[in-house]
Specification:
The complex is a heterodimer.
Chain A: H1 12-28, H2 47-56, H3 74-87, H4 93-105, H5 112-119, E1 124-127, E2 142-144, E3 148-157, E4 164-171, E5 174-181, E6 186-190, E7 199-208, E8 210-211, H6 218-254, E9 256-257, E10 260-261, H7 266-290, H8 297-322, H9 334-346, H10 351-361
Parallel strand pairs in A: 1-4, 2-4
Antiparallel strand pairs in A: 2-3, 3-7, 4-5, 5-8, 6-7, 9-10
Helix pairs in contact in A: 1-3, 3-6, 4-5, 4-6, 6-7, 6-8, 6-9, 7-8, 8-9, 8-10
Chain B: E1 2-7, E2 9-11, E3 33-35, H1 37-53, E4 56-62, H2 67-76, E5 81-85, H3 95-106, E6 113-117, H4 128-136, E7 139-150, E8 153-160, E9 163-170, E10 173-177, H5 189-195, E11 200-203, H6 245-255
Parallel strand pairs in B: 1-4, 1-6, 4-5, 5-11, 6-10, 7-10
Antiparallel strand pairs in B: 2-3, 7-8, 8-9
The chains are: A alpha+beta, B alpha/beta.
Chain lengths: 364, 259
């Protein structure tokens, strides 16, 4: 691989400023509540918010090589993903900027024009997974003769909004990276449980493709990009979990029953303590990586994604339960986080899959 | 053109503000400090004018050490430099002293335009822009909802009770802006990265040649004699409707002079 993702570019004060900017831009645009308005949306994307975050604030270039106008490293990717996760922002940061961006960054010079397109805010969608939505070098959906790509890929994130697809295809020499323009693909939007995380089934029928890696070297680049992306998903899970914890804590301090705040009941305190531990374990796992403590990113990515997938689902379920009746209403945001938790858990492999992967990585 | 924007660090708009028991001044440690919201509009206006006409934007603030965060936030929106007047002797300065300090920090630097937010969200006096203009002998155009610069002529719409007046002035001038004027930008990733590399000049009252006896709490023209916490909200009145609920509500509204 020709590109090494730096650990961080900003100091801690600047990182807080970046977090504040991202959080304010999303909340002042109405999120998380505005996710409700996307229920009937064809694309599941908020183009105005994406334009603000990607172009005005510059998030579409985070973690990309400097030669493509990129800035920041892994710590910035994870900080942005956490803030976007806390606000449920319906934007393709994780799938376009992080996953497609990191795959393209591993391809060297040939990918430069596509990296520049991503760095100016165009949306790319990754088509690298198998029928179960997993990245596995032994089981991928597409094949290529070197000039065209054929195959059908399910669950491509923000597929309906993408201008091009970054495709993993099996060639005679192994797995390589190709780009297919959206105009050469058949895209069918899928109805998603999480309104803010749309996906599509994309069919390539001998689609003209530009080959960006040769000799099967694409596999290592994609694997690394997937590991970075799993960390970003874990950060999204952390942002959402913390938001649910905070809103539940606020609620139990004001909701009264039997003439006292429900937060004063021991049974509620115990549940909140357990919930806090779920969130804090995930925060510690992610901070280990951002502080440079990860020896093997694949292992840490598997650990954080597996813990994050289970804990985010538990946290969102607790948030609904502890909010009582109001937590079950359509207007409350609790179910929106619950939906995101389900999506995040499934994306690129659920907790059980990640644990299995970890066991293999550690030679258990 | 060379534009100065004066900004203030204020307690977070949503935080509960407290006064210190010993000095009756604002307890700045009790809440997070943020860039005064109306000053963001002033910064945005300066950036737009410089983008259209060329030039530079300098952010000016007076405040304790942590006001540097606010200065950096304003610079990260895209400004070119900063001036921080930092001096413990300035603590407790009233509006008159503050305007003297800002005027000294601004004078002799050839600013074409000095922009303020129309008020701070903590003190809410709206007098500093006028006082600074008076001290510097410059034209003042306050409460502007629109500002245009053409050569050395400034045209602005000044908000009034009945609509707005269109005013013009010759540069250099002092302007204060209201929130209708624009939509402030968010600091960009690049802006945040660049902010710490931009030059910031830190000055004391002595550097500005100010007589210590005219600034600080001791020189304030007004003093807080006493203060008390806001009384807790009284409990609401529950009216049980036994056929006369409507009348009771009407009576309540009449006594409260709503109807």
């Amino acid at each position: 691989m020709s590109f090494e993702l730096p650990l961080a570019a900003l100091d801690s004060e600047e990182l807080i400023d970046l977090r504040n900017t991202v959080r304010s831009a999303a909340t002042e645009s109405g999120y998380p509540t505005a996710v409700l308005e996307l229920e009937k949306s064809e694309t599941g994307l908020d183009p105005e918010l994406w334009s603000l975050l990607a172009q005005d604030i510059g998030l579409c270039a985070v973690g990309l090589p400097e030669s493509a106008g990129g800035l920041g490293g892994l710590a910035e990717i994870l900080a942005v993903a956490e803030e976007l996760g806390a606000t449920l922002a319906p934007v393709p940061f994780i799938s376009s900027t992080v996953l497609c961006g990191q795959i393209l960054a591993s391809c060297g010079e040939s990918a430069a024009p596509y990296l520049e397109r991503i760095a100016t805010g165009e949306i790319a969608s990754p088509a690298v997974t198998n029928a179960r939505g997993l990245w596995s070098a032994t089981d991928i959906s597409c094949t290529s003769d070197g000039n065209t790509v054929s195959g059908s890929v399910r669950f491509t994130p923000f597929g309906a909004s993408a201008t091009f697809f970054v495709v993993a295809a099996r060639t005679r020499s192994g797995i390589d990276v190709f780009v297919v323009e959206a105009s050469n693909a058949n895209v069918n939007s899928l109805r998603s449980l999480d309104f803010s995380r749309p996906s599509a089934t994309v069919v390539f029928e001998g689609a003209p493709a530009v080959r960006l890696s040769t000799g099967g070297t694409g596999e290592a680049g994609i694997s690394h990009a997937v590991d970075v992306t799993l960390m970003a998903v874990a950060a999204d899970q952390l942002g959402g979990s913390q938001a649910c914890f905070d809103m539940t804590l606020d609620y139990i301090k004001v909701r009264r029953q039997f003439n006292r705040e429900i937060g004063s009941f021991q049974a509620i305190k115990h549940r909140m303590t357990d919930a806090l531990m779920l969130v804090e374990m995930l925060r510690s796992g992610i901070e280990k990586v951002t502080s440079g403590g990860a020896q093997d990113l694949s292992a840490d990515a598997a650990i954080n994604k597996s813990w994050g997938s289970d804990s985010y689902i538990s946290m969102t379920a607790e948030a609904i339960q502890l909010h009582g009746g109001i937590g079950f209403t359509w207007e409350h945001t609790a179910h929106l986080y619950f939906r995101r938790a389900r999506y995040d858990a499934a994306f690129l492999g659920d907790a059980a899959y990640q644990r299995e992967r970890l066991a293999t990585l550690l030679n258990w | 053109m060379k534009i100065a924007v004066c900004v203030k660090q204020v307690p977070d708009t949503w935080a509960e503000k407290k006064l210190k028991a010993d000095t009756s001044t604002l307890d700045r440690e009790s809440a997070d400090g943020v860039l005064n919201e109306l000053d963001e509009y002033a910064v945005e206006q300066a950036l737009q004018l410089v983008e259209a006409n060329g030039g530079e934007v300098v952010i000016v603030t007076m405040g304790p050490e942590r006001a540097a965060e606010t200065l950096r936030k304003a610079i990260s929106m895209g400004a070119d430099a900063g001036i921080h007047v930092l001096d413990n002797n300035l603590a407790g300065s009233d509006a008159i002293a503050t305007s003297a300090v800002l005027a000294k920090a601004l004078e002799g630097r050839d600013f074409d335009l000095i922009i303020f937010g129309s008020e701070s969200t903590d003190a809410r006096m709206s007098v500093i822009p006028a006082m600074v203009a008076e001290r510097l002998g410059l034209a003042q155009v306050t409460f502007a909802q629109k500002v245009n610069v053409d050569g050395t002529t400034l045209t602005a719409e000044r908000v009034t009770d009945y609509g707005f007046d269109t005013l013009s002035a010759t540069l250099p001038a002092v302007v204060s802006v209201v929130e209708k004027i624009n939509e402030p930008r968010y600091p960009s990733f690049k802006g945040i990265m660049a902010a710490k590399k931009k030059p910031v000049e830190t000055l004391t009252a002595t550097d500005l040649g100010l007589d210590p006896s005219v600034v600080g709490a001791g020189a304030a023209w007004s003093a807080v004699a006493d203060f008390a916490a806001r009384p807790p909200k009284p409990a609401g009145v529950v009216i049980s409707d036994e056929g006369s609920g409507g009348t009771s509500i009407a009576d309540y509204l009449t006594t409260s002079k709503f109807i």
